[in-house]
Amino acid sequence: MGSRVVERDLEIVVDDERIRVAAGTTVAAALFNHGVSAFRRSVSGEPRSPVCCMGVCFECRVTIDSRPHVRACLTTVVDGMHVQTATEP
Amino acid sequence: MTAANAGHGGVIAADVVVIGAGPAGIAAATAAAERGLRVVVVDRCPEMGGQIWRHVRGAAVPQLAQRWIERIGKSGARVLTGTSVVDVGVGAESFDILTDSSGSAVRICAANLILATGARELFIPFEGWTLPGVMGIGGAQALLKSGASFSGKRVIIAGSGPLMLPVAAAFSGSGARLVLVAEQAGFSSVARFAAGLWKTPSMLAQAARYRARFMSSRYSTGTWVTAARGSDHVEGVTITNGRRTWDEAADVVCTGYGLIPNVELAQLLGCDTRDGAVVVDARQQTTVANVFAVGEATGIGGAPLALVEGEIAGLSVNSRQALPSPLLQRRTALEAAALRMTDAFAPRAELRALPTAGTIVCRCEDVTYGAVQGAACSRQAKLYTRAGMGPCQGRTCMPGLEFLFAWQPNTVRPPIEPALVSTLSSEFAVTAPPASLSPSHMGDTYQ
Fold it and tell me: For chain A, is the Cβ count within 10 Å smaller at the N or the C terminus?
């Protein structure tokens, strides 16, 4: 994606790992690019990842800066942001 | 800007609140604000433009989108992005809209509402559709536009409707390996629809341009996915055309059977709906006074129709003036094209046989097909199995279940979206509406 994104990269922390992300990316896209497949765990323990990517399905919810149940698809990355995946149920 | 900037626990007064900042909402807000009305637009996404005008950060925005975004910027309408509507109260003279922006509550008071709530995808469950890597067709497009890289990934698009074409085109330009585009509608339906496009030549030309961009990939009609397999991530799918069944390997599977209007907010307000869409009159007025509806919420018609409907509503709020006839003629022509589309891409009956007893239908509560199979209606399924009672409130599973079992849609209750208790409690924090909706109030909350 690098060639299309003109803005500078940011650094976010995903499950204690620091990763570089293009500014303007959503958290959902950043996690997808990082190879995360279990954004959350379902009530029966299945891994789940984004489906609608427009805030309807709630499958992409993660913990961001200690706030649980945040929709990754509606959140734009911010430098220094801490994201925890697969924290539910 | 976000609603949080309005001040925590603040109340904003307006003449019109537009819910949704896609093409319909932008056109409605612009037309109303250009007439001097005080307009506030709310949208849950971080940027305005809706799904259709979402764009890769850094890439050029479509010209039409650019023009409208510039125009709304100059119109005086105030746009609150990253803001979800939680509830709408109906007062004697105004609506009281409770919104949430990153956990902060903001209330907006307005005499008129324009619902531009858009549409979502219809998902029909099949074995393995909950595996990571299986996503919506529009969902994949949104992910791509929000910075995701699909480079080198084997992608299968299997579903229905014209949305598959631009998404397939976008994937072929992204470095992904687009393996197959499977349209469940039969060849004759698709051909008849394509033949009808001569009435709207711009649509025909656009469809041809999209197809040209993924010429190296297969496009099959009368073909659908019956199951996805994989352990912690999708690895492949089983595909059939009714005569032959085969397996294909895939890293990403995009599914979706067309779009369905988001009517929940309209239903909460008591607006009539017909065939899953909000009923409106010639001025885009719903069956509830001072509530208008525009764009996909009133029936799937695409961005050109949404813009026209938006403008009509924006010109109709607090006005009885005759509407410009070119606008009305354009709406009539585009509505006819929309109806032909709905007929051509109706999901086939075979899709009802895809789920097995163990297939999860409600993704929020992990309720299986076997568990809901005996229910007489969606309400009974909800009460007995919790299907549709998770965070998405049935937005994802219920339309699919209604297709599988021919159930009628359930009633809608607030909150429209899950919200913090602190947000919900702010609904009761202010006992009286703002003293006046006069411009003097604007000093507090408008720049």
Answer: C
Residue B244: count other Cβ atoms within 10 Å of its Cβ: 8
Which positions in chain A touch B83 (Cβ < 8 Å)? none
Residue B285 and residue B309 in contact, taking contact as beta carbons nearer than 8 Å? no
Work out the end-to-end distance of chain A between its first and last CA atoms, rounded to an integer number of angstroms.
33
CB interface of B with A, residues 25-84, below 8 Å: 44-46, 51, 56-59, 82, 84
Partners of B78 in beta bridges: B40
Question: DSSP character for B61?
Answer: P
Tokens of B148: 């995701």
Quote the tokens at residue B349: 């009956």
B296: DSSP letter: G
Residue B141's pLDDT band, with cuts at 50, 70 and 90, is very high
Give the closest-approach CA distance of A80 to chain B in angstroms: 17
Question: What digits encode the pLDDT tens for the residues B193-244?
Answer: 888 777 777 778 888 888 888 888 899 999 999 999 999 999 999 999 999 9
Longest Cα–Cα distance of chain A, Å, equals: 42
pLDDT score of B440: 34
CA-to-CA distance for B397 and B363, rounded, in angstroms?
7
Q: Could you tell me if B396 and A54 are in contact, meaning their C-beta atoms sit under 8 angstroms apart?
A: no
Rounded to the nearest angstrom, the gap between the alpha carbon of residue B201 and the centroid of all alpha carbons in its chain is: 25
Q: In this structure, which amino acid lies at residue B366? A: D
Query: DSSP label at B111?
Result: E
Q: Rounded to whole angstroms, how far apart are CA atoms B76 and B442?
A: 12
Taking an 8 Å cut-off on Cβ atoms, the answer to whether A76 and B46 are in contact is yes
Tell which residue, B17, B20, B22, has the closest CA to residue B51.
B22
Which residues, listed in sequence order, are joined to residue B254 by a DSSP beta bridge?
B135, B157
Q: Which residue of B has its CA nearest to A65?
A: B102
Mutate to test the interface with B, among A3, A44, A56, A64 (most CBs of B within 10 A): A56
Q: Do B233 and A37 touch (CB under 8 A)?
A: yes
How many helices (H) and strands (E) are present in chain A, helices listed first? Answer: 1, 7
Give CA–CA dist B429/B96, Å, rounded. 13
The predicted-structure confidence for B104-120, as pLDDT tens digits, reads as follows: 899 999 999 999 999 99
Tell me the two tokens of residue B292. Answer: 């208008």
Report the C-alpha gap between B15 and B29 in whole angstroms: 11
Question: Nearest CB to B148: which of A6, A29, A76?
Answer: A29
Q: Tell me the chain A residues in contact with residue B140 when contact means C-beta distances shorter than 8 Å.
A: 53
- The pTM of the full predicted model, rounded to 2 decimals, is 0.90
Contact B146 A50 (CB under 8 A): no
Residue B441 has pLDDT above 50, yes or no: no
